[in-house]
Amino acid sequence: MAKLTIEDLKRIKEEVRSATVLREGGFRARINIHMGTCGIAAGARKLMSVVLKEIEEKKINDVMVTTSGCAGLCSREPMATVEILGTPPVKYCDLNEEKMKEIFVHHIVNGEIVEAYALARGSETTY
Amino acid sequence: MKTYRTHLMVCAGTGCVSCGSLNLKDRLESELKDRGLSDEVKVVITGCNGFCAEGPIMVVYPEGIFYKKLTPEDIPFLVEEHFLKGRPVEKFLYTGPALKEKVPLLKDIPFFQHQVLRALRNRGLIDAENIDEYIARDGYAALSKVLSSMKPEEVIQEVKTSGLRGRGGAGFPTGLKWEEGRRYDSSPKYVICNGDEGDPGAFMDRSVLEADPHSVLEGMTICGFALDAHQGHIYVRAEYPLAIHRLNIAIEQAKNYGLLGKDILGSGFDFDISIYPGAGAFVCGESTALMYSLEGKRGMPRIKPPRSTEAGLWGQPTVLNNVETFANVPPILLKGGQWFASLGTEGSKGTKVFALTGTVNNVGLIEVPMGTTLRTIVHDIGGGIPDKREFKAVQIGGPSGACLPTPLLDIEVDFDSLDEAGAMMGSGGLVVMNDSTCMVDTARFFTDFSVDESCGKCVPCRVGMKVMLNILNRIVEGKGAMEDIEILERLGQHIKESSHCGLGKTAPNPVLSTIRYFRKEYEAHIQEKRCPALVCVDLIQFRVDAEKCKMCGLCKKACPMEAITWEKKTPAAIQLEKCVRCRSCIQACKFGAIE
């Protein structure tokens, strides 16, 4: 490995920090993907991959990704809850990879709720 | 670096490793792989989390959920429930003394709430064996600032402004020491990090070295720049293999990045660090003895002056600081001395790391602002005394320290207040004692330790401590006389005044402080031939008080010699001819019926 310059040091800091910042808190938004048996069967794990890929590509470091169990509405899975902290969470249902990507760009990045896919405001309690 | 949605921070401090955290990590990784979660959930090995009593520990981010006492068998269930389905598993969550409900989040646990982390700023948050994660948490940013924009004098001024005092025990102002080291114009100069942590029950330095070795390397390099030194040595106990292992990795990584070696960060400044495993003598923690030991000679203190800053290692100007002191340096340079000085008391700035052990619920590693009361430390952070026992004393500062009683619980801990109370900050060992501890025996234990560890160079320490030990032995055997107390006090004072080095100057403290605060116990041993805490076996009658005996038979079960006769509904009795005075019955009896 070549010797670092001060600029290299800053670059490493930014790169690694975006991957480790989730340990420090300070999130702007949270995406909760429902991972009950029903959710997984309906394809929730693919949604997770989409979300993580978006975060990595767009170098976003202030969005928390969590999972939760079955919300009780198994027929509308896969579902995800998106919350811009400080505003009420929004539940989306009947999702697929394209819809998830759309929600990510509009709701998470630009802060606009995608009403076409939205089910309701509000969320079950998780830690 | 790849993005994961969840990071699992598995504690791999010595405490958690010894209760199996590395097996936990292996099991986690294989289970995550089986479930196809390896790309989403990352397992990270960290240094000591601090809450050693609850180990093995795992903290889950981003939520910050704290899991305790996990075993490999728990892992499959945990992975399925939490990391796949997102349901935190309640049975592994923390619940403390006096808490009815489970506390899921680390930040809500009382043990952590009262702490302020500066020296331990990265604890539990980075992989100790990955330099990149240290850099991500502002690591080496202070060094880069120093090398690119500061003069050595400015560095020293900043450290002076911070009011940082040496964390090894004596509390010498760090900035002043650096200034002295810079003043002597002789080359080469040396920077030494003292990691020869020898106090019984102390593990602060070990935890810093294991959890965040780069913070020490960075602090030493900054010190080297301030002094115009180009070589650093870390003298670390050979009994700390994990710390040495992680230091070696850290030095290797720093060299690869050019953060150690020639022309650091293109500044033209050269600095190297080597590790020296200690020879295992307590006295080698004394700075001049340590330097002799580094030179390959017998570790013995020498008379000062000259101070080490003038003529230390190999007779050259040397600055020696403790592990925790160096770990405090980078943030001071990054955020400024004023920032550091904003916390603490008049004479002691910043925070102090303590190893909290003994009879206290939350054994572990803590960092609190200077000026925090002992009560907060023992009762709020430590969670009080287990087994419905009463608090009796807290031993602070190891064999150089003192035992402080209940009335001093409200003392605000800093260098000066402890000094006034006849104690000493020491390196930061805090041993909590309950009412089943005999203070005379405790003083005897520490005196015995100091006698063993005296290097033998000066008479007061070598002979004086031995005489004190003999007197204490007499007292616990019931052969003491009242004038012994006065002799102990007088002799102790002489040893403090006339000894050569820090070891002898402080070795009488345990005896002097217990006489000062627990004189009645000495008197009971001498006049009444009685040990109130029932510890000194020669002063125990081993007789059952029939009125107190509840006839439960626990003592009979506990006795290894079958010396106790007991039937249902009759008080127990001890047959003294069979009794070997092991005290098992006393420990088993819940009613204090054996005297």
What does this protein structure show overall?
The complex is a heterodimer of chains A (127) and B (595). Chain A has 127 residues and is α+β, with helices and mostly antiparallel strands. Helices cover 38% and strands 19% of the residues of chain A. Chain A has 4 helices and 5 strands. A 5-stranded mixed beta sheet of chain A has the order 2-1-3-4-5, covered by helices on one side. Chain A is elongated, with a radius of gyration of 16 Å. Chain B has 595 residues and is α/β, with parallel strands linked by helices. In chain B, a hairpin with a 7-residue loop joins strand 14 and strand 15. Classes of the chains: A alpha+beta (127), B alpha/beta (595).
Cα(first) to Cα(last) distance of chain B is 66 Å
User: Mean pLDDT of chain A, rounded to whole units?
Assistant: 86
- Specify the helix fraction band of chain B: 25-40%
Q: What count of helical segments of chain A does DSSP give?
A: 4
Secondary structure class of chain A reads alpha+beta
Overview in brief:
The complex is a heterodimer of chains A (127) and B (595). Chain A has 127 residues and is α+β, with helices and mostly antiparallel strands.
Map the helices and strands:
The complex is a heterodimer of chains A (127) and B (595).
Chain A: H1 6-20, E1 29-34, H2 37-42, H3 44-57, E2 63-68, E3 80-84, E4 90-92, H4 97-109, E5 118-121
Parallel strand pairs in A: 1-2
Antiparallel strand pairs in A: 1-3, 3-4, 4-5
Chain B: E1 6-11, H1 14-18, H2 21-34, E2 41-46, E3 58-61, E4 65-67, H3 75-84, H4 110-113, H5 131-136, H6 141-149, H7 152-162, H8 174-183, E5 190-195, H9 204-211, H10 213-227, E6 231-236, H11 241-256, E7 272-277, H12 287-294, E8 318-322, H13 323-335, H14 337-341, E9 351-358, E10 364-369, H15 374-381, E11 391-396, E12 402-405, H16 415-420, E13 429-434, H17 439-453, H18 459-476, H19 483-498, H20 502-506, H21 509-517, H22 519-527, H23 554-558, E14 564-565, E15 573-574, H24 584-588
Parallel strand pairs in B: 1-2, 5-6, 5-8, 6-7, 9-13
Antiparallel strand pairs in B: 1-3, 3-4, 9-10, 11-12, 11-13, 14-15
